[in-house]
């Protein structure tokens, strides 16, 4: 099962150079890296990233993350994947730019499977 991280391109490029993604500011504040399932990604983008440009969608095979990945209740009582640890950039199955539409919402056509 693929899970998804939305991240500013500059932050992910820094992680690529370091070989590991330690998290965005909100991840560092909360103590884990936030992910979304395919079904949750569009809502996550609308709620937390509307209007932001230069974002990337990083797809990760959840099984690769082992016991550090926890499924926890969050928005609307849904279970969200949270990674308690760092993310090796080599774990990325794909990294894609997320186009933004004129209304500020993001276009995930063809990006989520």
Briefly characterize the structure:
Helix content is 24%, strand content 32%. It is of the alpha+beta class. The strands form 3 sheets. The chain has a 3-stranded antiparallel sheet with strand order 1-4-8. A 3-stranded antiparallel sheet has the order 3-6-5. Strands 2-7 form a two-stranded antiparallel ribbon.
Tally of individual domains: 1
Q: What is the C-alpha radius of gyration, as a whole number of Å? A: 13 Å
DSSP helical segment count: 3
> Strand order across the biggest sheet?
1-4-8
Give the CA-based shape: globular
CATH architecture: Alpha-Beta Barrel
Structural class: alpha+beta
Enter the CATH topology name.
Answer: ADP-ribosylation fold
Q: Low-confidence stretches at least 5 residues in length (pLDDT < 50)?
A: none
Number of strands: 8
Could you report the average pLDDT, rounded to the nearest whole number?
A: 96
Looking at CATH, the homologous superfamily is Protein of unknown function DUF952
H/E element order: EHEHEHEEEEE
Could you describe the largest sheet, including whether it forms a barrel? 3 strands, antiparallel
Report how far the terminal alpha carbons are from each other: 9 Å
* CATH class placement: Alpha Beta
Strand content: 25-35%
Percent helix, as a range, is 10-25%
What topology emerges from the helices and strands here?
Blueprint lengths: L1 E7 H10 L1 E2 L3 H6 L2 E2 L3 H11 L6 E7 L7 E5 L5 E5 L3 E2 L3 E6 L16
Keywords:
113 residues; alpha+beta; ADP-ribosylation fold; three-stranded antiparallel beta sheet; 8 strands
């Amino acid at each position: 099962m693929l899970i998804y991280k939305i991240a500013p391109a500059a932050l992910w490029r820094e992680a690529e150079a370091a070989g590991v993604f330690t998290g965005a500011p909100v991840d560092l504040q909360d103590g884990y890296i936030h992910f979304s399932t395919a079904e949750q990604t569009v809502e996550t983008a609308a709620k937390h990233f509307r209007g932001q440009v230069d974002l990337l969608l990083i797809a990760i095979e959840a099984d690769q993350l082992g016991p550090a990945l926890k499924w926890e209740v969050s928005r609307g009582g849904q279970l969200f994947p949270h990674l308690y640890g760092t993310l090796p950039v080599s774990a990325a199955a794909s990294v894609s730019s997320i186009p933004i539409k004129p209304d500020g919402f993001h276009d995930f056509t063809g990006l989520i499977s």
